[in-house]
Amino acid sequence: MANADELQLVYPLGDTLPASGGTLEVAPGVLWLRMPLPFALDHINLWLLRDRQDGREGWTIVDCGIDSPSTRAAWEQVFATALQGLPVLRVIVTHMHPDHIGLAHWLTERWQCRMWISATDFGVAQLARNATGQGGDENADFLAAHGLADGETLELIRHRSDHFAQLVPALPASYRRLLDGMVLHINGRPWRCMAGYGHAPEHMSLHDAQGGLLIAGDMVLPRISTNVGVHSSEPEGNPLPLYLDSIARTAAELPADTLVLPSHGRPFRGLHTRVQQLQRHHDERLAELMQALRQRPGSAADMLPVLFRRELDAHQTTFAMAESLAHLNMLWHGGRVQRSRGADGVWRFTVATTA
């Protein structure tokens, strides 16, 4: 069922979705694919762009899906039915999260082509493959220090030390670097890279001004708010202002009637409206945190019921804790709250005397 914010957006394709292993044309030479994910967020949108490079006709893939048998099978069906006998010429990855980069190694090896990605996200993906990602003792201890006390959830996190590597079992050994403002010529048309921050280290959206298209990745989603979180690898991080600045820049630079191609949900028009909705959403969450903290000091875990009105499973709780900390750290860095660590080892936030 659509929420009130969704009703303010326009969905040119209505409720039509591509079948797994199938495609839908959203603009001339731009095909929409939808691949399964084994999470509550059960799909990711991927894109096929008709292209030519160095005199060769073919296709550019944008984003890959996780490495799983079902995703590989869906891609094989796409290759058999949608490519018109032409090869894949390159694979563009908007950012390093597993549902976007997971199959990049397989796709680039299969088609003997290069992965294109920002240098920051390529490097962080390499680190994530060799680190604990969102699991392991370090992450469990980090969340416990911010008030997460459920023993079952913490134990699940401790045993999920190779979560990233399970979804991304390998990475391409080499890549081609994407930079903010860089123009990619795809099928003779210029697509401009737009760097975004806060959700991933250096997320790259792609804007086709001639066609009025934005491949937005995860930066602007129509139904849900983009996950912006603080993790154990950067415990004092302040990603939320970076994210808000990024989407404000997008709205300032792109026309209101841009057709947004998001990584989750349906293609939509109403970019400026959606950015305003997301800005209002975070302003409201920050105000609710301030109100709660005026009643009594609290940890990030204490603030989960304030920010999330639904029951969370263990997987969702890790993302929710990261989001809670992103909002609290924004208030802390802005001088509106203070934090201190109690004798029990838990960080708690309280309203600053000057706020």
TrEMBL record:
SMART domains: Lactamase_B. The lineage of its organism: Bacteria, Pseudomonadati, Pseudomonadota, Betaproteobacteria, Burkholderiales. Residues 43-264 form the Metallo-beta-lactamase domain. Gene3D superfamilies: Ribonuclease Z/Hydroxyacylglutathione hydrolase-like, Winged helix-like DNA-binding domain superfamily/Winged helix DNA-binding domain. It holds the Pfam family B_lactamase-like_C. This is MBL fold metallo-hydrolase.
